[in-house]
Specification:
By secondary structure, this protein is mainly beta. The chain has one domain: Methylamine Dehydrogenase, Chain H (7 Propeller), CATH 2.130.10. The chain contains 1 helix and 32 strands. A 4-stranded antiparallel β-sheet has the order 1-2-3-4, with no helix packed on it. A 4-stranded antiparallel β-sheet has the order 5-6-7-8, with no helix packed on it.
């Protein structure tokens, strides 16, 4: 009896670790830069410095599709509202639209940007796509034709983040000029320029009801703005590091944030309290709630994708690539993921 029980336990352990190995075999082989969850609650997608886009089943963690079409880092992914399409973009200055069910490329959008594309988002009806780039431009695209609709100009530095309002009438953008802009989609004009951050703005997201806009910055704050008048409503301070990515929960009561110190926080907006999620070992590049708000997905420089339960911060599972840590030495000082050329400094981020 004891031998049979021991044998059963051994088989279970073998199957368990075989399962983990299978999942890790499918993992990204470089930094994971972006994540988005589908509105139907079935999938999430990730993009990486390994040039690939991957679609995963959020419940089983199984790889559904590995999509190859980009020739450089993939910095941003976005599902269409109906969940049938996925858009991806990055350093090759192109936007690829994929069919989620088949994994096939539908079309490629190009010519609108002359530098890295850092952020994309679909309009609520799925007919328009917005993109933000290091060329300081925000571009609106017709998804069906693949043609550029209009270019929104106003930022004086890299545009790191864009978002559509829930009613589709507005676009928000933020970037290295430390400002957040709200644009009118029809006219292409700036409605308001929100000033209050002291450093790069890396992430913007509208509240589900569209009344507020949240922005996350390298100044260590999340600011919440009233969309109608541009007034600052609240500031959440995280004093320990840069804020790389934020997302609203579907009920609008919480915000999740990912940071460069490898931590993740989920904030209760009304109380200001938070729970901390510890599992990454390097910069957390992107975060996203699923459609229920019960789960969240985080990705980072440690090649890891982690899925969490969001009310208690429980770890659910991870998909871990083989991680290495690069150190570059210059004048007896060490820098992580930074490059130097002819006495000029370049940040890989």
């Amino acid at each position: 009896m004891f031998k049979k029980l021991l044998y059963t336990i051994m088989i279970f352990i073998f199957c368990f670790y075989s399962f983990l190995s299978a999942q890790d075999y499918d993992a990204h082989t470089d930094i994971v830069l972006c994540v988005d969850a589908s509105s139907n609650g079935t999938y999430f997608a990730t993009g990486s410095a390994d040039y690939s886009v991957k679609i995963w089943n959020i419940m089983s963690s199984e790889l559904v599709h590995a999509l190859y079409g980009h020739s450089d880092w993939v910095r941003t992914v976005a599902f269409s509202p109906d969940g049938n399409k996925l858009a991806s973009a990055g350093d090759d200055q192109t936007i690829i639209i994929w069919d989620v069910n088949s994994g096939r490329e539908i079309k490629t959008l190009y010519g609108g940007h002359s530098d890295w594309i850092r952020s994309i988002a679909f309009s609520p009806d799925g007919n328009t796509l917005v993109s933000g780039s290091d060329d300081q431009k925000v571009v609106l695209w017709n998804v069906n034709s693949g043609r550029e609709i209009k270019t929104l100009r106003g930022h004086s530095d890299w545009v790191r983040t864009v978002a559509f309002s829930p009613d589709g009438s507005k676009v928000a953008s933020g970037g290295d000029d430390s400002t957040v802009r709200i644009w009118d989609v029809n006219s292409g004009r700036t409605i308001s320029t929100l000033r209050g951050h002291d450093d790069w703005v890396r992430s913007v997201v509208f509240s589900p009801n569209g009344r507020n806009l949240a922005s996350g910055s390298d100044d260590g704050t999340i600011k919440i703005w009233q969309v109608s008048n541009g007034r600052l409503v609240d500031t959440i301070e995280y004093a320990y590091s840069y804020i790389f990515s934020i997302d609203y929960s579907p009920d609008g009561q919480r915000i999740i944030s990912g940071h460069d110190d490898s931590s993740v926080n989920i904030w209760n907006i009304s109380s200001g309290s938070s729970i901390e999620l510890l599992g990454h070992s390097d910069v957390v590049n992107a975060v996203a709630f699923d459609n229920t708000g019960d789960r969240a997905i985080t990705v980072g420089d440690d090649f890891a994708i982690i899925v969490w339960e969001t009310y208690y911060g429980d770890f659910l599972y991870s998909i871990q690539g083989e991680y290495y840590y690069d150190e570059y030495y210059y004048d007896d000082e060490y820098y992580d993921e930074e490059y130097y050329d002819d006495d000029e400094y370049y940040d890989a981020e």
